[in-house]
Structure formats: C-alpha cells, structure tokens
Amino acid sequence: MPQIFLNYRTDDEEATATLVDRELSRVFGNENVFRASKSIGPGSRFPQELLTAVRRSHVLLAVIGPRWLTAGGSGGRSPLEDESDWTRREIREAFETGAVVIPLLVGGVKRLAVEDLPAEIKDLADCQYRRLNHRNAEADLTRLADDLVKLSPELAASAESNGYRSPATASDDEQGEEAGASGGARVRAKVIKHRQRGGIGNLNGDFSGSFVSEPQGPVHTGSGHLYQAPEQRFGPYTSSENGGPSPVTDPHGDEDEQR
Fold first, then answer.
1. Total Cβ atoms within 10 A of residue 41
2. Residue 212: which pLDDT band, with cuts at 50, 70 and 90?
C-alpha cells in the first residue's frame, strides 16, 4: 500500500498534484505515492479505494491552491461545508488514523485559518505547512522529499532503495572524496588575515601545505624536520693552517682579559 497520499481538489490544483506525484514517485517509488486518477484502476470501487489508501498511508499531503476553499461550491458556499466532500473526508480519515498531515500551499496562498474549516478538520490550520512555488519548483520539491525522508524510517528506506540522495548529502560526500584523494586534509578558509613581514596579503580559498608565520631565523621547508637556527655573530675571517678561511667568533667576554 502507498505511504504517501495526495489530497487535492480537482478544480483547484490538479496539475500541481500531478507534478508532486511525479517527483515523489521518482524518489520513493510509484507504488508508494497514491493519487486517485493514477492509482485507482478501471472498475475499482472508488470510495473504498480512496478510504483504504488514506487509512494505510503514513503521510497525507493536502495540496492547497487559491480555489481550494471555493471551487465547486454551490450558492457561494465552500465545498468543505458539504460532509460528503471527498477532500474533507480524506483529511478527516488521515487525522483519525494518526497520519502526518502536511498542507502544501501553492504559490502565494495564505495559510489556512481555523474559522475557514469544519470542526472535524480544523487541526489542518495548525499543521506545519510547506510551500511550492512553480518558479522554484525543483528546490521546493527537493526540500519536501528531504522532509519526508526524515519523517519516517519506511520512507527513508524507500528513498534509499531507489538510489535517492539529497543534494546536500551528495555535496558533502563529494567534498570528502576530494579531500581523501588529495592524500591529506584540505582546509577551506574564507578569509584569513595574518600579520607578516613579507607582505603577500590576505589568504582565502583552498590551501594546503605548510604556512610559516614570521620566522625569526633560517627556515627549512623540505621533506625533513623544520629547524629554526639561533642567530650567530661572526667576527672576521683568518687564514687557517691548511689555507682555508676560519671564522673567529666573538666570545662576548671581557676585552681586557682577551688582550
């Protein structure tokens, strides 16, 4: 049985419901997303199929557009005022069976108010919603899929079996693989301001290797150890017995004693 039930009003956002169905079916599998016009086969008993599906679903997504409260109503009344309205009945069944109900607001539709809803589904106004803008549909649907993955272990398992990885997870994995391939840790620095006497400016971006700040003596940065030699003072050179130069160091002693 499906894990996600798409609730929508035919005269309101049927096309949007089809779009959501297509994306979520790609992530979780076609059999895990119920949409009436897709999932109910010819000759099936429509009421029984609908109620059975919603009662066995983990999540009900209520796709709500600008005509959701008014489409199809007679005499200026909201269709929700009719107890036989299927949109109302499906949401009521979801609440009664303990499913997670998520309002999916399309475009600039305002959040539902308690006074706009029948008492039996008034909790819909308090449910945390998600928004779907068609100009940003890809990102909004990705966020919705990620929310559903976190919501239920069953949905997470279905997404994993279909090879789904959220863009954020995929990006983190790729960065980790890049760092591993380089043979060492790779550091990302946004801006590093460092005092230095050589004056190469601020460092930013990716960098690796050794960075030596204000060395006080000779520095060796090859493959061996890093040495900082003490400062030495040399006197004049004299000729040694073998003819080579021999430095005379300043002993810093008492000049009278050295004479």
1. 7
2. low
